Amino acid sequence: MPFQKMLLDQVNIGESLKRGSDRKDLIKALQTSLHELGFGEELNWAKYGADGDFGNSTVAALKAFALKNGINSDGESVSQELASKIMERLEIVRALKVLKELTHKGPSDQILFRGSVHRDGVSAFQKILHRLDLGAPHNPDEEGNFGNNTVEALKTFAAREGLQSDGARVTSDLVKRILDKFTPFLGSAWAQEKPSSPPPAMGPVSSVFKKFKKGVYTVGKHRPADFIEKNPDLLKTVGLTDSIMRIIAAVSQNEGNLDAINTWDDSFLTFGMFQWTIGQGPGKGELPAMLSKVKQVDPALFHKYFGQYNLDISAAHANDKVYGYFTLDGKLVDQPARKELLRADQWATRFWESGKDPFVQAVQVEHAASRLLSFYWKPGKAPIMNSLSDLVTSEYGVALLLDNHVNRPGYVRECVDRAMTQTGLKDPLNWTTEEEQKLLLAYLDIRKLHGKYPMTHAKERGDRMAALVASGKLSKERNSFLYEAIQSRDLGIRVPMGYRHGDYPEIEWEEKEEKDLQP
Predict the structure, then answer these.
(1) Does 174 map to a domain?
(2) Stated pTM of the model
(3) Residues 66 and 126 in one domain
(4) Residues contacting 347, CB < 8 A, separation 6+
(5) Is 244 domain-assigned?
(6) Dist. CA 328–CA 326, nearest whole Å
(7) By residue range, what is the domain housing residue 18?
(8) I need a surface site. Which of 73, 439, 498, 517 has the fewest CB within 10 A?
(9) Class of residue 358 by CB neighbours under 10 A (exposed 0-12, middle 13-18, buried 19+)
(10) 432: pLDDT confidence band, cut at 50, 70 and 90?
(11) For 212-245, how does the pLDDT look when each residue is reduced to its tens digit (9 = 90+)?
(12) Domain end marker among 30, 53, 78
């Protein structure tokens, strides 16, 4: 769990993280972080895991961490000093994990060297050097590039340690000496942790995948609705409210499973609950943008599933929230010939393995919800200037709009505007549920036939949403869509907490021809 995000959202961390606190979400994030730092034995992790109870085990683990890091604490609460130190150690331990994974893959001097294509490994190594006060100040533009600054920093470190090195390669002796520098600050379990074994390459016959055309597919087994129901606390740590969770669970029933894979698609490879792709032809895809979030929050996890196989996010698109490119073996995957490489069976296996990981699943759900940022809060155009967020405020209505947007993004606003004209409805300020439902009824009829290529299975998809309302899993009451909100100073519109509206400029979304994952 992203403990850093939880900490930054708190004004007084000590009041939320102490013995007896009812902030289970924060406590679970703390416990998971302490476990990652190697204090699983003190936490009694095998028995309790991250249970959200700030009891004796959590106190013992926190006290042990404080002692190893030179901080005076009885473990009964988390001071700002302790929280900052945990964040600092988490950053370094994740970089160390990447380093350990790389050295498990092969000799370090054949992986980390001047000009290396292993940008994730180089980036992790640079963070380690920075924490050792070596080299120039951290420069994001040089991240992942083993150049002169990294060479000089490595030479300085080697000289300090009495080792011979020209700084051009990271030898096994240097790796061991670096690990020795940080091990005293971490729990005993961390030093014993073994690097993950790479998933096996898929053979010609598999119980998971089925062959079709020039690829394979699996519909997967991990349903988003089940994951959302079982993991609300985890999803709250990535910024989702109960209301948003209900909406995404509703929309997901018309899409795919969290571990769904398809490598026979026109867009080469699709993955996950919204069947994100790497893009048609030479175009950018949504899948790199989704996985970029995994890498930003947990680089070691990204390395486990992708980085160790030399798949990375293009540095030029690392901060794009919607579309991007991958790189493979240091080369941009922006042409069909390069994208074809990701149809290989072993890539289907690797993506499928990641789709079973709870944190990757949580990022998928968050990324699905973030699609709302690109259209729901934006102002309309004359004569209907209201944003969709003014017109439709029920969970049921928002779910219908998002479902439409996933399938035919360019049609959503057009259909709603036509429904406004058809019904004669005006200023929504004083609307009740009755007025909104009148608008939605007209909208549902219009979207069935709207456009050159109407929304796929529009009636059936709408019927599934209505069934959720009937069963009490989705509300049709006006203003039932609840989210944390702030005011955007530049555009004056409401957007979910933690996001800037500017993160999602005008986007030409891909109109999807809806395909089942299985032929």
Answers:
(1) yes
(2) 0.63
(3) no
(4) 263, 269, 311, 341
(5) no
(6) 7
(7) 3-78
(8) 498
(9) middle
(10) very high
(11) 777 888 888 999 999 999 988 888 877 788 999 9
(12) 78
